[in-house]
Design brief:
By secondary structure, the chain is of the alpha/beta class. Helices cover about 40% and strands about 15% of the residues. The protein has 13 helices and 11 strands. Helix 2 packs parallel to helix 10 and helix 11 packs parallel to helix 13. The longest helix has 20 residues. The chain starts with 15 loop residues before the first helix and ends with a helix.
């Protein structure tokens, strides 16, 4: 077995209970494209966790979920506000702008979190045909910096968006980690605080592949079946995505996996903070640890435990814990770091 690294929760394998669900789904024939019992059961579980009136659509991956979710709620002359560090800005190869036609307006933040006072000054030219019109605020929960929006912060952003004729979209690739961090249900940090559209992630929390686009007002999903197909994200053998979500949401797999990853990140952060040469740059609120490691030591560390340098300028690295990260992994890594930076 290859060594577990701290590069990404995408690098982890598949949760054993999810693998078993895929195996169980691999029996006989069912109707393709989602008209199957697995998808029906998974949809009911989403309604249980997020609200009985939600509309749910499964897609292959996170970029597709974000882009198609945004496409469904925007017009091409509108703008989408996001943090400069947002996945939609940094890691989606321009897909949001290409497929929505919208202009991304990025905002610098010290911790990956958008605030009303940062967006408000940018709401100008409303009704003027020469300017893009405000359409959506999109945030990541947890953020790309490993921080977590509180319920109050979410409600404030949603209220501001709605008061100004905009919608709130959430990239929830790590929503499970955020919910655990806040000791909240999934509904309490989405439907209950005014989120309009959610990309709900499974891949980073133990699934093989698959994400979901969740609409909290079904009217906004009226054309989404066509948008998903045209966007090349309609899985023919959808039962294998649905079966994974069923395994994730039918019990406590989603919560257990996220809670464990968060605990391992807390341990990693607290142990690294004991080394005088290492400086944490963000509070550890989900499953990510951000720290400055002296540049000269990074290549040696990466040879044994691969991870990404987040900010080359200050030698800030990102370390991610996963559902399968062990305490031994953390302590071995910290010991190796300690020996290397002496």
């Amino acid at each position: 077995m290859s060594k577990r690294s701290f590069a990404s929760d995408n690098n982890a394998g598949v949760h054993p209970e999810v693998i078993e669900a895929v195996k169980a789904a691999n029996d006989g024939h069912v109707v393709a494209y989602g008209d199957d019992p697995f998808t029906a059961r998974a949809t009911k579980l989403f309604q249980k966790h997020f609200g009985r009136d939600v509309a749910v659509y499964f897609v292959f991956g996170g970029t597709g979920a974000n882009v198609l979710g945004l496409k469904a709620i925007t017009k091409s002359y509108q703008s989408i506000f996001c943090a400069e560090t947002a996945h939609v800005n940094v890691d989606e190869c321009g897909a949001p702008e290409k497929f929505t036609g919208c202009k991304l307006i990025t905002i610098k933040t010290p911790d990956g979190k958008l605030r009303v006072e940062q967006v408000k000054p940018l709401l100008h030219g409303i009704g003027v045909e020469h300017h893009v019109q405000p359409g959506v605020i999109t945030i990541s929960q947890a953020t790309e910096m490993g921080t977590v929006y509180t319920k109050k912060e979410l409600k404030t952003l949603a209220g501001f968006a709605h008061d100004n004729g905009m919608l709130l979209h959430v990239d929830g690739a790590r929503l499970s980690n955020a919910a655990v961090s806040l000791e909240a249900t999934l509904k309490e940090i989405t439907a209950d605080v005014g989120v309009d559209v959610l990309s709900f992630g499974g891949t980073k929390n133990g699934m093989m592949y698959g994400e979901a686009v969740v609409f909290f007002d079904k009217k906004r999903a009226a054309d989404f079946k066509f948008i998903r197909k045209q966007g090349m994200h309609l899985p023919s053998k959808m039962r294998f995505i649905s079966a994974q979500f069923e395994a994730l949401l039918s019990g406590e797999v989603w919560r257990r996996g996220a809670a464990h990853a968060n605990r391992m990140a807390q341990l990693l952060g607290s142990e690294l903070a004991k080394l005088p040469q290492i400086k944490l740059t963000q509070p550890v609120e989900a499953n990510g640890v951000f720290a400055v490691i002296p540049r000269k030591y990074v290549p040696s560390l990466q040879k044994r435990y691969f991870f990404y340098v987040w900010n080359e300028e200050i030698s800030e690295v990102r370390l991610m814990a996963s559902f399968d990260t062990t305490e031994e992994d953390v302590r071995d890594f910290v010991a190796f770091v300690g020996k290397t930076v002496k």
